[in-house]
Amino acid sequence: MDVEKFYKLHELLRNRRTASPMVEIMSCLDCSKSTAKRTIQFMRNNLDAPIEYDREYQGYRYSKDSYELPGLWFSAEELLALVTLQKLLTELGPGLLDQQLSPLKPRIQKLLASKHLSLNAMQRIRLLPIAARIPDSALFQTVAGAVLNQLRLEIQYHTRGSDTEAIRTISPQRLAHYRDNWYLDAWCHQRNALRSFALDRIRQAKVLDKPAQDVTEETLDAHYAAGYGIFAGTAQHLAILRFTPARARWVADERWHPQQQGEWLADGAFQLQIPYADHRELIMDIMRHLPEVEVIAPKELKQEMTERLQTALKIHQTG
Hints:
Blueprint: H1 3-14, H2 22-29, H3 33-46, E1 51-54, E2 59-62, H4 76-92, H5 98-101, H6 105-114, H7 137-149, E3 151-159, E4 164-178, E5 181-188, E6 193-198, E7 202-211, H8 217-224, E8 237-243, H9 245-251, E9 261-264, E10 270-276, H10 279-287, E11 293-297, H11 299-318
Antiparallel strand pairs: 1-2, 3-4, 3-7, 4-5, 5-6, 8-10, 8-11, 9-10
């Protein structure tokens, strides 16, 4: 069905004090009588539109004084994407938006049915989160609310590396879902700088009655997009990696960094250049491809890789 016709018919019926004859509807929709009837029938059956036929005036009108079209206008593919999003949120977290989305399910089912689709089809889509750390549902909603309402937060945060806890006052900027886990990008008022906080390490969160300090989109992008992975900061290093011809067939199609540069070498190998600020996550990704990758530069990254491999080899040989 043509979505534009729904809007036109809706505007016609809600602005009329009396019923609209079929001729007027056909003129408004610029269509034939059969198409006008199909539009009316679709709106009745799938959009719960209270359209009735008035025999006295020989036309159609709304039986209710107030009716608004639902704000869901999607193609079949877009509807499937919406249901997939709901499935994603359900599987990644303990029903984070189940309550908010539940009123939409019956209407989604009707619209899917009109496209000869079914919610059962979603059982054929598999989402496989790996090593996901699920945040507390109530805490997630508290943090998300602060982000959307631009309010400051007071959090009790546990840092894994030092195994310490601290109270921080932060101005939340963005929620990020990265590698199956949730992170909060925020301005930390103790550090007077931008920081990222893993949501699963926030022990408690309290919304403060104070506006969050605003950080421009340009500043956020420059800070978080320049580094590698979750580690933000200005990229001061350039890693040069060489992958064997066998591994190159996979790596050449992968995007490790927005500013990466890759080239095929004469022997079939693939060389990848990646800017980074912190080497920790980069090294983990490099080690996934061992022994079919070599760190060419910088020498500090090559030395760090060598030391880790020697330590791991020593542990395994001893074991």
